[in-house]
Amino acid sequence: MxxxxxxxxxxxxxxxxxxxxxxxxxxxxxxxxxxxxAWLWLTAFVGVNLLQSAFTNWCPLIVLxxxxxxxx
Length: 72
Description:
Blueprint: H1 14-32, H2 40-56, H3 60-67
């Protein structure tokens, strides 16, 4: 059974933040690309970083989140 969103007792993990931030940047850059197609480079940059992190198991955003004290 699904739990309501506000029933979470623990803070978000690094991977949850990573998905939230990456998805938000992609959607934002796609929206901005409607006015200037150059914004699609930001979408490509996020995609390349996600691909490389799948192969190397290293992501610059995870390093930043660790420094900010987000739990693993």
